[in-house]
Each structure stands twice: as structure tokens, then as C-alpha cells.
Amino acid sequence: MTERLTYGAHMRALLALGLPLIGSNLAQMVLHVTDTVMLGWYGVEALASVVLGASTFFILFILGAGYSIAMMGMVASSLGKGDETQVRRDTRMTMWHSILFGVAVLPVMWWSGPILIALGQEPELSALAQDYLRIAGFGLIPALLVNTFRGYLSALERTGVVLWATMAGACVNVALNWMLIFGNWGAPELGVRGAAVATLVTQSVTALLLAFYAARQPDLRRFHLFQRFWRPDWPAFARVWRLGWPVGLTGLAEGGLFNASALMMGWVGTVELAAHGIAIEVAALAFMVHLGLSNAATVRVGHAEGRGDFVGLRDGAVAAIAMSLLFGLVVVAVFLILPGPIIGLFLDEAKPEAGAIVAFGTVLLALAALFQMFDAAQVMALGLLRGVQDTAGPLWITVISYWVIGIPASYLLAFPMGFGGAGLWLGLTIGLAVAAVLLMWRFWGRWGQVELA
What we know:
The chain is built from 15 helices and no strands. The protein has helices at residues 7-42, 44-81, 84-110, 112-118, 123-136, 140-155, 159-180, 192-216, 234-268, 270-306, 310-337, 339-344, 354-387, 392-414, 420-447.
């Protein structure tokens, strides 16, 4: 019988796993912020075109990353059972899925210009976005492989190397952007294409670092991860497919919720949209902590489920939810006490519209404090469910919560009921609250009453 751990021990284990993942998530955000800032220095047209291109890339990445996110729970469960052969089979076939998906969607990025024009974007910006994607698009395969290695190493509780590899990639990205966007250090000035080259190289370097570690680290050689890599394993391939595609669509449903809110905020006004962008960026920084804890919970719960330790599974889930809740309360306090200074960090106060943006951003951060707890709860519930390899049910819960309830509520509150931008965020809160309640109910309804071992 497995010795029962205290809640404090569960929390320490979650932090040991989760802190490097949180740091890795924040480093990924630094990549995005760096690209935005440097292209903003280069020119407005370049920045706008790469926003289009990067958004297209991100949508495709979210879809393809479902396989590696699902794999994390699969590998953790197999490790709990002591089945190292299944660890290798699932990880290898996830790499297959990542490569095949990247190849399949490459034509979308190669001919993205006409697609963007058909979606109402300006021809000049669409052409520049296509230039970006024709280079950066080749980085989708290494980006998905990075996510695969991240899931594999996280399940093995080797999250520290994930953090260091991501930070190394962030440093490479900054240096290459400085060289290739502006033509510094004797390099050609490539503008948008330079940013694309930097992205491609960064993703490739990070993938190679993690692959080398996974293959050569002495304690991990026993998994023989790349041995006879070319041989198909159709049962494992089908298993990864079955669990992975709902995760990708779940991520797309949630991402689409916030993209739709940005579109509707643009209907409200320019000042409101600017404040919305800042407030969402601030909320996203806090969300990275919850996401890292959720990933750690996936691993811990997967290990417990694999070895049949339902006491540990339930106790670990309680500890993870409690930690996320405590951090959420701290963020709520910060958002309510310091909204003006936080929004002001993103603005030049000498600009005439800065005061209006700060005023409306203060309202949005108060609403962000409200949905912070629901957002934390839904991502934690998703992490727990993925740990027990439950992926299809959560997909339908998120689609209903966000697209049947959240988006219509946002529209009704903002426009017919006249609450404007504040109404949009109230609608987001409603959608997130419904998702949080239903996802938590699904996890505890299935696993809260399992016979304790």
C-alpha cells in the first residue's frame, strides 16, 4: 500500500515540478513580447503584418499541440504503472503526429496571403504576413516537437531542463531579431523576414537542445526514445490521435473566446481596444502561473492514476487546486489595489489618449480580478482531467461554455444591453465560470468517489 503523503508534501512536489514550467511559460511570453517590441521599433506596417502571421501560426500550433498535451498524462500514467515500453511508444508516436501535422498545414502558411485577403485583411499586410509565414511556417514542426519533449520530460519530472532550454531559445531570439530585423552586426536588414528567420532558428535550437538531452542524459537512455524511430506503431499512433485531437480543439475553443472578444471590443472603440489588449496581456501573465501548476497537476495525477493510488490522486488534486486558489487571491488583490500603475506601465503618459486608456483599463482589471478565479479553476480542472486521460468530454464542455454561453452573453451585455466593453468582459466571466463549474464537477464526479486504496 502506498504511504499517504501530507498536503504539504503534495504542494512541495507540485512546486518542484511547476516552478520551472511557470518559468518556461513566462519565457515563451518574453519571446512574443520581444518580437512585438522590436517590430514596433522597425515599423507599424511590419508589426501589423507579423501580428497577422503570428496569429495564424498560433492557431495552427494550438491545434497541433493537442497531441503533446494529451501525451503528458499518458506518459505519466504509464510511468505510474512501471510500463517504460509504453512511455517510448506514446512519445514516439506523438513526435510522428507533430511532424505529420506540421507538414499537412504547411501549404496553408505558404499560400496564406489569399486566405487573409479573403478574410478581409489589407492586401499589402497580407502579402507581408505571407512572407513571414513562408519562413516561420517551417518552424511549426520544431515548435510542436519542443512541446512533445516538454511533455515527455515533465512527466519524467525533468522540468528544469525545459526551463533552461526555453531561456536559451529566448536569448537566441533576441540576438537574431536585433541582427536580422534591423541589419545590425553586419547582417542584412530583412525586416519581417528577419523576424521569421529568428523564430525558425529559435524553435529549431530549442528542439535540438531538448532532443539531445532526452537522448543522451544517462538516466533517460533506458527509454531508447529514438531507437528505430522510423518504424510505425499503429496502436500507439491511434491512441495518441484519440486523446490528442480533443485537446487541440479545446485549446482552440478557449483561444477563440478571447480572439472574438478582441474583435467585438474593436466595435466598441479604439481606446477600449487598447485597454483590452493591455489588460489581457496582464491577465495572461498571471495565467501562466496557473497553467504551470495545471501541467504539474497533470503529471502528479497521472502518476497516481497509473499506480492505482486514488488517495494520492485525490489529495494531489486538492493540493493543486488550493495552490492555484491562493495565488489567484494574491492576483485579485493586486488587480484591485494597483490597477492604474499596472496599466500605466504599458503607456506613454504624455500621449493624449493615455488617461482614457488607464481609466477604462482600471475597470477591466477589476473585472479580470473577478474572472481570475474562474480562469484558474477551469485550467486546473483541465489539467486534472488530462492526468486521467479524459479529453473528449472536456472538449464539449468548453465549446458549450465559451461559444454557446460566453460569446452570446458578451454580445448581449455589450451591445443590446448597453454595457459596452465592461459587458464584454462580464460575458467572458460568465463563460469561464460555467466551464470551471462543469469541468470541476466532471473531475470530482468521476474521481472523488473512487474507492480509496
